[in-house]
Each structure stands twice: as structure tokens, then as C-alpha cells.
Amino acid sequence: MESSSESSFKVMNQDFVKLDKFNGTNYSRWKDKMMFFLTALKIAYVLDRSLPEIPVPKDDDSNEVKVQCKKREEDELLCREHIMNTLSDRLYDMYTTVKSPKEIWNVLEYKYNTMKQGADKFLIMQYFDFRITENSSLMDQIHDLQVIVSKLHDLKVEVSESLQVGAIIAKLPTSWNDYKKTLLQTMKHSL
């Protein structure tokens, strides 16, 4: 039977394993890739919040229980090292004293999910505050607005096409007022 560390070595040598360093800005991507990697290694289970602590070994434990405890300890160590190996130097230094991979995972998840929620709110504000100016290419600015809409879509915030068109018209500079009126009338007649 193959040990977790042998399995880990085989998986790491596969071409599909490309784990970026987590630097604090790419949490969702890093988390998904890391979870896929740990699952392929069959050690992701150690991050399960409902998994009980490793029991303290007793002299009268059966060999099977001793083997299971040893495997779990090895899997936790391997999981921790894989997580730590993908952290930026700054984050590595911050979590180097934490021995439990579950604790590292939970702290990262709490911290960066909270930050992501703040970023999500900022993105929605960005959409509402977006204005088209005359000192840049109109198509470039519309592209920028479409990027914001695409990011909102990733957050499961749907912005209908008619709302996008209305937003673009409403966000045109005042020098476009005559054109805005024509577009709005055209939209009114097509509804």
C-alpha cells in the first residue's frame, strides 16, 4: 500500500499541479486549487471541521487504531506542509508557528472571505459610481464597465442586458445629452 507521502510525491510530479503562491490577493483561486490538490492526495479530509482531534494513544490500543492514528498524524503534517509551501513568504512567516492545518485553513478562510465580502460591496459601488468621461475612448470605457458587470456575474449578481444598456446611456457625459434622448426614445418605442 502506498503511503500519503509517496502519493504526494507522485501527484506533485504531475503536469496538472500548478499551485500559485498565495499572497493574499488570489484567495478564491488558491483555495480551489489547493483543495483539488489535497483531495487528489487523499488528505483533504483533515480540514473537515467536524473531524475530531486525534485521540491520545493508549497502551491497550489495537494495532489497527495505532496505524490509523499514525496515518492521520502523517496526513495532517503533509497537509500543513503543502499549505505552508504555497504561502507567500509574508504569510508563511505569519503562520509558521501554527501546527494544525485545519487551524491555518480556517484562519485563512475567515480572514480572506471577510476581505472578499468587502471587495464585493466595493465592486457593486464601483458599478453604480461608474461614469463615462470625454477624455478617454468610449469603447475602452464601455469595456471597463463590461468587466465590472462580468465580475458581478461571478458574484451571482445578474445585471440584465437592458439594464446594462440603460446604465451605459445614463453614464454618458452631458455633451451626449441629445444622443441620450434619441437612444432613450428608440428604447421606449422598441419596448
Would you kindly provide a written description of the structure presented here, covering whatever features stand out?
The chain is mostly helical and 191 residues long. It has two domains: 4-113, no CATH class; 130-190, no CATH class. 64% of the residues lie in helices and 0% in strands. It has helices at 4-12, 27-40, 63-85, 89-95, 101-129, 138-154, 161-170, 177-190. Helix 3 runs parallel beside helix 5 and helix 5 (101-129) crosses helix 6 (138-154). The chain is elongated and about 85 Å long. The mean pLDDT is 83. This is UBN2_2 domain-containing protein. It comes from Coffea arabica (Arabian coffee). Pfam families: Retrotran_gag_2.
Shape: elongated
* Main beta-sheet strand count, sense and barrel state: none
Question: Uncertain regions: pLDDT < 50 for 5+ in a row?
Answer: none
Backbone structural class = mainly alpha
Count of DSSP H/I helices? 8
Helix content: 55-70%
Q: Give the ordered list of helices and strands.
A: HHHHHHHH
Radius of gyration: 26 Å
Mean pLDDT across all residues, rounded? 83
Percent strand: under 5%
> Span from first to last CA?
68 Å
Features:
mainly alpha; 2 domains
Set down the secondary structure blueprint:
Elements: H1 4-12, H2 27-40, H3 63-85, H4 89-95, H5 101-129, H6 138-154, H7 161-170, H8 177-190
